[in-house]
Amino acid sequence: MKTDNISLPEHDYLTETRLLHRLTWRDWLFAVVIFAVALYAQLVIAEHHMDGYEMAILWGSALGVVALGWFFKPMQWFVPLSAALAWLSMQAYGGDIARAEQVFVLKYFLASQSAIMWLCFFTVMAFVCFAAGLLQAKMRPVNPHHTLLGIATGFAWTASVFGFAGLLVRWHESYLLRPDAGHIPVSNLYEVFILFMVITALMYLYYAARYQAAKLGAFVYGFMCLLVGFVLWYSFDRGAHQIQPLIPALQSWWMKIHVPANFIGYGAFCMAAALGIAELLALRNPEKSILPAAEVIDEIMYKAIAVGFLFFTIATVLGALWAADAWGRYWSWDPKETWALIVWLNYAVWLHLRLVAGWRGKVLAWWAIIGFFITAFAFLGVNMFLSGLHSYGTL
């Protein structure tokens, strides 16, 4: 495929292989701060609650965050800011969960549910501004600044900060409710939907910055608004925001690594579906399209699916190991396992057709969109309509 006059970013592979030589004092300071926070979490916050596996996960996560911060520079303020807000919330609690309704900053800003509601609000505001920015670009295509798109990006970052901080606070709240049964907040659909939104947002923000593709935010955040609708319904109608003790099936350290890896995959696949819609629109009338070039959208979609496929593969392997530990066998053809395999095969074929057969354009865009429905059924439909060993994840 020719890429003449296409604004794909150039790759300086020699520079990429010399990452350590490109690090600045800010990068090293970020690493020191993250490891200090990890040490503080182990020695002060968690105290005696962490076993060997959990400490390994904590320090592995710290290494991952440092690497991510070196790779995507905005993470160097995003992670410390989210952690600082969570720490302020912990100080406001003072060890008493009842203070969530008594202290102003907790009740309206930094209790986990308050922070998650701000996540929802700023997500909707980001979509409104992205959509308005797209309309502004259509009406005044010669305007190079697109102020609304910049405001939308700010809202997107703000939503992500509140979402990530809310998850950290919810983790702390679980220990305040039951010191012997606190757990990482990835144990039910409500919690993983919040994680899902944060991961999808951060992934979009990375690619939007790398490819100067902020106009695609209207499509990604249009999808995110659907997630907001589910979170609000699930909170107010089903009371899912109430923290519950872990059921025995989930009382395993495997959950702490299997679920996040899974949702990096889910987030990437769903973002790819939104980009598939954008690519189809860009292909309808390339000369008059205000969107990035279809080839650029296609490239971002490919990168998202490749990253999602990698993490979904890791999650599937981890899930098999967890199954062997819990049920004595790696694979049971449980409906959840079967549909996870279907999702994996779907994107394996997608990648094969793109990388080996050289497919591009409409077919793969439609495939990514259809893949969203396959992924959604594996994520929610199986829990709603099928029964099996994973039936504890029902609505």
Automatic annotation (TrEMBL):
<feature type="transmembrane region" description="Helical">
    <location>
        <begin position="263"/>
        <end position="283"/>
    </location>
</feature>
<feature type="transmembrane region" description="Helical">
    <location>
        <begin position="28"/>
        <end position="46"/>
    </location>
</feature>
<dbReference type="InterPro" id="IPR045062">
    <property type="entry name" value="Cyt_c_biogenesis_CcsA/CcmC"/>
</dbReference>
<dbReference type="InterPro" id="IPR017562">
    <property type="entry name" value="Cyt_c_biogenesis_CcsA"/>
</dbReference>
<keyword id="KW-1133">Transmembrane helix</keyword>
<keyword id="KW-0472">Membrane</keyword>
<feature type="transmembrane region" description="Helical">
    <location>
        <begin position="339"/>
        <end position="357"/>
    </location>
</feature>
<dbReference type="InterPro" id="IPR002541">
    <property type="entry name" value="Cyt_c_assembly"/>
</dbReference>
<feature type="transmembrane region" description="Helical">
    <location>
        <begin position="304"/>
        <end position="324"/>
    </location>
</feature>
<protein>
    <submittedName>
        <fullName>C-type cytochrome biogenesis protein CcsB</fullName>
    </submittedName>
</protein>
<feature type="domain" description="Cytochrome c assembly protein">
    <location>
        <begin position="187"/>
        <end position="390"/>
    </location>
</feature>
<dbReference type="Pfam" id="PF01578">
    <property type="entry name" value="Cytochrom_C_asm"/>
</dbReference>
<feature type="transmembrane region" description="Helical">
    <location>
        <begin position="77"/>
        <end position="95"/>
    </location>
</feature>
<feature type="transmembrane region" description="Helical">
    <location>
        <begin position="189"/>
        <end position="209"/>
    </location>
</feature>
<keyword id="KW-0201">Cytochrome c-type biogenesis</keyword>
<keyword id="KW-0812">Transmembrane</keyword>
<feature type="transmembrane region" description="Helical">
    <location>
        <begin position="216"/>
        <end position="236"/>
    </location>
</feature>
<feature type="transmembrane region" description="Helical">
    <location>
        <begin position="115"/>
        <end position="135"/>
    </location>
</feature>
<feature type="transmembrane region" description="Helical">
    <location>
        <begin position="364"/>
        <end position="386"/>
    </location>
</feature>
<feature type="transmembrane region" description="Helical">
    <location>
        <begin position="147"/>
        <end position="169"/>
    </location>
</feature>
<feature type="transmembrane region" description="Helical">
    <location>
        <begin position="52"/>
        <end position="72"/>
    </location>
</feature>
